[in-house]
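Notebook p. 47: complex prediction with NDP.
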Amino acid sequence: MDPRVEQFMAQVKAKNPGENEFHQAVLEVAESLIPYIEENPKYKHAKVLERMTEPERVVLFRVPWVDDKGDVQINKGYRIEMNSAIGPYKGGLRFHPTVNLGILKFLAYEQVYKNSLTTLPMGGGKGGSDFDPKGKSDNEVMKFCQSFMTELSRHIGPNTDVPAGDIGVGGREIGFLFGQYKRLRNEFTGVLTGKGIEWGGSLIRPEATGYGTVYFAEEMLKNRGDSMKGKIVTVSGSGNVAQYATEKATELGAKVVTLSDSSGFIYDPNGIDAEKLTFAMELKNIKRGRIKEYADKYGVEYYEGKRPWGIKCDVALPCATQNEVNAEEAQTLIDNGCFVVAEGANMPSIPEAIEIYMKNRILYGLGKAANAGGVAVSGLEMSQNSLRLSWTREEVDQRLHQIMKDIHQTCLKFGTESDGFVNYPKGANIGGFVKVADSMLAQGVV
Ligand code: NDP
Ligand code: 2IT
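Predicted complex, structure tokens below:
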């Protein structure tokens, strides 16, 4: 490792003990940025990277609520307000039992660079809770959301901090959170994104992350004179991002052959077509069932406790969670001929897996570039709320598509190496950094 990176990371680790995912996210960025900062000393002297690695504010709170049996439950609530140099804090809320401070700090850190890449004026933040929505009734989810928002409402606002969804937080949860905010403040504002279409939401927001990931994969392929058409695609996850990545990839003529959840994956060699995807969406979004039921319904293989990376594919779209592709799986993907990885999830590939992608010079679209479509359309939802009007599906989709093309261009600009190879991590990290860093320089030591 570059000794300057090593020294920087030693400080980050000493200041943030035990936050492994946060260390991992910072290291990934530092490897691209530290050489760049050496060439651009204005950032070095002002300690911009060191400042960006310290959240502007962290809010940690108790979330007490009463379950259907009448028992008192207590969860942890968090909001990490990472960086507001280019706009209000913006980023999702994650409800999952694994949530802790280190995971939310990694997500907030990535969000700063990602939001900058979108070209829209949004700072970075992330929040959530160790609350597990699985197996809870709608009433329990509502009670939890109301208690969570009772405290969170003190810290957010349409010009301060605008949360949205992430794992475990979809349309249902955003509805309960918005209702409670409005009741507490007596204000109808764009304080959350991912809202229902009848009450201030944007068309295409549910689709945006998955569509954007596939648009980004298509741009990477186009740059090599290729396209998604005819490609075999493996997708992990079966939630919001996985569903719409599957839909768009299929629309562009690819064949998606896997979906997964935390229990296992299904392999459908004939492809998950529109009808089968509708079944999967109803299963996951309404029945809140397990992906195994897809295998039972369509008579395909189900692999209990396994991830889909052993299935032969051209394009892999990890859309479930962090660290879901290890080094062995990355090598298997390459050995099976996979040459495109576009990350719908945040930080799904471990550092050793990324090394394998880079060594094999495949098209590797890292999360902060490839999955930026979700937050980009959140930004468009904020614009529509400010204008008090709503754009058509076509208009939002066209803007999303253009933003993904622009992000790809930024990656080419900062990531193309002397031999023509595009180092997308380098391009995205530097491209995301410059706008935030220049804004921080202009605003003084704050
Ligand atoms: P959902 O809650 O809708 O779906 C999550 C999916 O991932 C489910 O299939 C879930 O399975 C699976 N999953 C979650 N945790 C694990 C785990 N520890 N191991 C294996 N599988 C797991 O979330 P989203 O689709 O919204 O989010 C997926 C990823 O995309 C996350 O990394 C998120 O940060 C990222 N992302 C989301 C955006 C958005 O707009 N929603 C925007 C950009 C990135 P199960 O049902 O068994 O838990
Ligand atoms: O990781 C992400 O970019 C999101 N979960 C979406 C954030 C948002 O504010 O829409």
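Notes: The longest helix spans residues 393-415. The CA atoms of residues 216 and 404 lie 6 Å apart.
Next step: compare against the earlier run before touching the bench.
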